[in-house]
Each structure stands twice: as structure tokens, then as C-alpha cells.
Amino acid sequence: MAVSSFQCPTIFSSSSISGFQCRSDPDLVGSPVGGSSRRRVNATAGISSSFTGDGGLSSRILRFPPNFVRQLSIKARRNCSNIGVAQIVAAKWSNNPSSGLPSAAAAAAAASSASAVSSAASAAAASSAAAAPVAAAPPVVVLKSVDEEVVVAKEGIREKIGSVQLTDSKHSFLSSDGSLTVHAGERLGRGIVTDAITTPVVNTSAYFFKKTAELIDFKEKRSVSFEYGRYGNPTTVVLEEKISALEGAESTLVMASGMCASTVMLLALVPAGGHIVTTTDCYRKTRIFMENFLPKLGITVTVIDPADIAGLEAAVNEFKVSLFFTESPTNPFLRCVDIELVSEICHKRGTLVCIDGTFATPLNQKALALGADLVVHSATKYIGGHNDVLAGCICGSLKLVSEIRNLHHVLGGTLNPNAAYLIIRGMKTLHLRVQQQNSTAFRMAEILEAHPKVSHVYYPGLPSHPEHELAKRQMTGFGGVVSFEIDGDIETTIKFVDSLKIPYIAPSFGGCESIVDQPAIMSYWDLPQEERLKYGIKDNLVRFSFGVEDFEDVKADILQALEAI
After folding, report:
1. What is the mean pLDDT of the segment spanning 185-211?
2. Would you say 25 and 45 are in contact if contact means Cβ atoms under 8 Å apart?
3. What is the pLDDT of residues 108-147, one digit of tens each?
4. Fewer CB within 10 Å: C terminus or N terminus of the chain?
5. What is the DSSP secondary-structure string of 481-525?
6. Per residue in 412-460, pLDDT tens?
7. Burial of 408 per CB tally in 10 Å (0-12, 13-18, 19+)
């Protein structure tokens, strides 16, 4: 990211740092670093700076670009959401000529970080030039310990920027989710120094320190670094910020898969001997983890129908429930949970609410705004959208996501930066894809419901769906998946599926290509029929994920396949 136009003061000697001229960025010129205007804390800002001349430190101060405050936020330091160029230590440098030199520790910390900054910034410099001293005294940025707040002072007025999420003025010019999918996390404040429109892929397994003093600064919380690839990556941070903007989340953590996100979240937030509540209809692997693994930790589970509000109230009153975890819509019957109501019930008892919104997408449903504490997505599906990458994410408050992140750093399951790039690229068309998929699925659901060879259709956009009115209240679109039952046995259903020409027979959903499967075979074939029926999985059930193909082509293909049976 280019830096704002500013004069680079004479701070370090030319013998230690090569000089260059700071380059201006028209998008950032005039943005203040401090003052009374409130802005959202963002962990992804990158900076570039220059240092020239051989003057003393007295009366000189590094004038930081507008995004520097965000780099020193608690969010950045606690989550290591920066790159090496953020290892500058802003240590109470005086802008008063009479105040003399800063402390030796501050000078040493600044000097130890300067070479990393010089390396990144020189790539962005237009030419080498000596810089003039700063005429007007800029704000002072004070970095305290890791658990303290960052305080920005300007003309004696201090503004606290801490754990409270501030107004997001950064994206105020983006009025729709469609624009956020394209620009959030990238357009104004990307933690990578580059002029490239697209976000670069940073392939590294570790991050180095120039001197031992830098390492000690990092270990003693005076500077920030990813340190190791399992703890963070600049490309991955861009993805996290983009998803946070869409979900309205304070923080987002991305992982190697959706199941990784769900399981690490459960392990991090539910104590040994704890209790959770979930719903009958859900992804089978999630149910297996809850029923087979969590009991080894003494964790018990209550399973209720998605619409069983009385059952939820009974559970939270009877047990000390740590978490209510459900999908909405659910897999594969697309049941919907009243997120606002269950959040109200759970929060009265101190129970957290986590919604798996994979089937909804952040465009069709804002679970956090409805009261949920956390949202989980399999980013493999709609968010990635191209059937070419595995990923998962957790969105929510900084406090909760940080708890999960700490365990994630121990367990691993790190998303490869190349995969992060594919998802960033995929998200730029998310709104276009979801619009098409919503439309095709809704129109086909109506056609299928009226077809004599289809016995039942499950889709929240249909009035026949048990939670249709609820879906209309809490969703802006009903998604691109339709489940339905063929009027026939398993052989008839197989013939229908095999007669289709456009969709692939495969697991997963949400991609550009249409996908079809029979859950009885794809997900439950290891169970006998009577066991499958306990979960409502009939042999004639079909789950159809609509891609972005032309509606008329998909319609003709489905109708000809129905005629074939």
C-alpha cells in the first residue's frame, strides 16, 4: 500500500538507513492520524516510510501515515495482524523542541525496526531525496503493553482506541455488500506494501528479526510480528478483514476448512464437563464430532428440533449450557432457526449462540446483527464459490475470536496463503453469484413443487416451508440449494440423477457449477436404511445446488431428467 503525502523528518543517520523520497497516495492524502474523529480499529493496515539525513532526534517526530493508528491497536497486537513493517515502536517521541531526546529504549526500539521499514518502503519510493523537517507538530502515538489501550493524543486531547469497535469510516463510501465484497480489506488499508490492485500472495513459513533486540522487543510486547506462519499471514489478514466487513464482525479467523473452524470453536469455548445444545438437522460430520468426540471430554449434548423453542428454554434452565450451536438454514432440509429469539433466550442464561450460516451466506443473512455471538462458515462453499479451495471462518467479537485464535495457534489447521488468495478473488463476484443462485433456486423450487414426479420440496422461499415467514424476516434471499424428494424409490431417484447433464454428482455446494447428490448415498450410505430414516434421510431425497448457469438451461435439464423416470 502506498503512503500518504507527508514530509519525512530527519531522525536516523544516513549511515544506518539509505535515504529515499516518500511517495504520495491520492487516496490517503489529508486523512488525519489522530484527532477527535472516531474510526474503526482495523488490524490490516500497512505503512511505508522514509528516513533521511543526519540530524538529531530533538524536536523531530516521525509523522505517521493515516493508517498507523490501526497498526498499533490492541486488535493488531493481540492477533499479530500485521507484517514486519509494523515493527516500528512509537514510543512517546516528543514534538516539543525543548523536551530533548526520547528515552534510550525508544530510540533503540525505533532504530532496530528501521531497517525492516526501509526495506519495504524503498520499494515504493519514487526517488531518493533528502527530507525536510516537519513544520507542524503531528499527533503522538504511544504504544503501551499488550493489554493496554493505544492512546492517540493531539493537542492535549486523547481518544481511546481499545476493545470497543469504533465507527467504520473506512468503508463509509461503500453502501452495499456488493461493493464490500470487491473492496473491503483491500481498497483502503492493506497490510502489504504494494501498488498492485490485487492482493499479493505472501508465501512464507516464518518471519525474521534483523537483530536480537527486535526479537526481544517483540517478546516483550513492544512491537508486533506474525513470527511464524501458523500465527498469521498478510494475505490471510486481507481475507479476514473482507469477511468481517460483510458480517459486521469485530474480528474474523480463517482456518483450513469449515469443520476445522467448527471443531476448534467448540473446543475453545466449551469447557470439559460442559453442555451444549444443537439441532436435529445438521451436517453429519458436525453431529459425529458432538456425539462421538466431545463426550470424551465430559461434554454432554442436548439435541432439539430447529423450531423447538420450548426445548431450548428447558435445556438452558436445566443445564449450565455453554453454547447453542446450529445451522440456519440447516443441511439438508433448510430449516431456519429464529436467531433473534434464541439469542435472547440464551443470553439471559449466559449461553453463547453460534450460527453456521454457510447455506445463507453473509449476503442473505446477518446473524450477528440478529443477536448471535458467533457465525461460522465453510468458506469452501459460497464464499470461495469456485469449487477449488477448502477453508472455514469464524466471525464475532474480538474477545471470543481471540479465545478461539489462541487454541487455533496451538492446534494448527492454518489456511495456506494461496488458498486465501483464491477466496479473496472468489469473493469479488460473491454478490453476483449469490443473486443468480438465489433467483435460479427460487424459480426452480416453484417449478419442482408443482411437478407431479416430485413429492416434496424443501426450500425456505416457498410458503409451504415450515419457517417461511421466519425466513422472510431474517433473510434477504433464500439461498441456492433446493432439496426435494422424487416420487419413487432409490432406483428411480438414481435414474433421475444420472439423467441430468449439467450438474456434477459430487458433495459440496455453493460453487459456480451446479452440483447434485442423493444424501442417502453421498452422506449416509454406511448406515442401514432404518438408521438413515431416524435423521429424515429418505432414499428418494435429492439435494440440488444451483450454480450460475443460465436458468433456462438448468430448467430444461431438470425437466428432461424428470421425464426420463
Report:
1. 88
2. no
3. 434 444 443 344 334 333 333 333 333 333 333 333 333 3
4. C
5. EEEEEESS-HHHHHHHHHH-SSSEE-S---SSS-EEE-HHHHTTT
6. 999 999 999 999 999 999 999 999 999 999 999 999 999 999 999 999 9
7. buried
